Amino acid sequence: MIELFDVDYNLLPDNRSKELFSLRKKTFKDRLDWLVNCENNMEFDEYDNRHATYIFGTYQNHVICSLRFIETKYPNMISDGVFDTYFNDIKLPDGNYVEASRLFIDKARIQALQLHQAPISAMLFLSMINYARNCGYEGIYAIISHPMRIIFQRSGWHISVVKTGCSEKNKNIYLIYMPIDDANRNRLLARINQHATKMG
What we know:
- The strands form two sheets. The protein has a seven-stranded mixed β-sheet with strand order 1-4-5-6-7-9-8, with helices on both faces. The protein has a two-stranded antiparallel ribbon with strand order 2-3.
- The chain is globular.
- The protein has one domain: Gcn5-related N-acetyltransferase (GNAT) (Aminopeptidase, 3-Layer(aba) Sandwich), CATH 3.40.630.
- The mean pLDDT is 91.
- The chain is an alpha+beta fold.
- The protein has five helices and nine strands.
- It is 34% helix and 30% strand.
């Protein structure tokens, strides 16, 4: 059974943090070749701190997907200008929002655990909406790649592109807003239930 849960940075066990940061290195450095900082075969940065909360998706106690949330009132990758060279002036609005970053689904583990038929992206996206709603946020902002945008669109989550930029690889990247309303939540639930019916 796939389980999804959130953990604050301060409560993250050592073994789980090592697993997370190792998987992030595999995804963002080894597979995607992003400009990220790596040390001891792990990827982490200054935003992995007490203001961060992580969503984990696990199967048989193995992490298969994850992302990091940071309230936009605290330093985060978008507001701090990490992506300024890729965009022409981006700024998050004032309000009670949360930024999502370092989102990944581990393809190798999905294959090894024979989960390729499971609606993992929809489950992860639903957990994002549920977390944001439970915490009283107005919505979620993130910067994503073009392939990730396609995954969002296929899931049924009606995200909106706030601004388009160009990465160091000359690929389109997007500042997106993710609404957390009932309609989007229900579409994701329907997609998950549709898969469950097929599997059943």
